[in-house]
Amino acid sequence: TGEGDGKEDFDWNNYLEDYRPASPIYDRREGEPSSWDNVIAAKPSLMDHLMWQLRLSRLTEPEMRVGEQIIGNIDQDGYLRVALEELAVQEKVDVNLVEDVLSKVQEFDPPGIAARDLKECLLSQAKMLGLSNSLVLTIIQEHLHALEKKDYNRIARKLKVTTPEVVQAVMLITRMN
Questions:
Q1: Could you read off the pLDDT of 25-83 as tens digits, one per residue?
Q2: Which residue among 13, 49, 106, 156 is least packed, with the fewest CB closer than 10 Å?
Q3: Residue range 86-125, pLDDT digits in tens
Q4: Which 3 state secondary structure label does DSSP give 67?
């Protein structure tokens, strides 16, 4: 009729019902932050993380199969719990190939993964930290038993270094995982 702009007479609720979002609407109070608990993805397992790294590696088909077997035989502490010869027989490959793939897997994150014992685990971590030819490496290689007993004076005497130097090296070793 030409009177007013017509906003008062328009039924907005009826109009908007046709344009509701298809996804569910989560009710929350005004001023409350959004909860992302139901949106954040689950943390991947150690095996998932290692398999992801394996798939990113440039390996041949036999190396990939061996890598999957190595990762599948890592326990929850990160240690490899199968003999390399057994893996070689299972995958019908040379044991040298298994050793090569193992050395590649041991470069994955987390440092020290797929070691067969504590010494190998610590040596791998020391190598990744760039500590080759260091007191830390020597202590791990030759004096792990004395280190377990915290006999720092004996280690210092055997290596002809001071006890504070040994303690400093031990501090680095104890930070390894």
A1: 555 566 666 666 555 667 889 999 999 999 999 999 999 999 999 999 999 999 999 99
A2: 13
A3: 999 999 999 999 999 999 999 999 999 999 999 999 999 9
A4: helix
C-alpha count within 13 angstroms, C-beta hemisphere, residue 69: 23
CA-wise closest residue to 54 among 66, 41, 44, 43: 66
The two tokens of residue 51 are 């398999």
Q: What pLDDT digit, counting tens, does each position of 124-173 carry?
A: 999 988 887 789 999 999 999 999 999 999 999 999 999 999 999 999 99
User: Cα 113 vs. chain centroid, distance in angstroms?
Assistant: 8
**How far from each other are the two terminal CA atoms of the chain, in whole angstroms?**
81
Tokens read off for 34: 């959004």
102-108 contacts: CB < 8 A, separation 24 or more?
A: 102/70, 104/57, 104/59, 104/63, 104/67, 105/50, 105/54, 105/67, 105/70, 105/71, 108/50, 108/53, 108/54
Q: Which two tokens stand for residue 97?
A: 């190939």
Instruction: Pull the structure tokens for residue 59.
Output: 């390996």
DSSP result, 136-161:
HHHHHHH-HHHHHTT-HHHHHHHHT-
Tokens read off for 28: 């929350």
Show the tokens assigned to 10: 């328009």
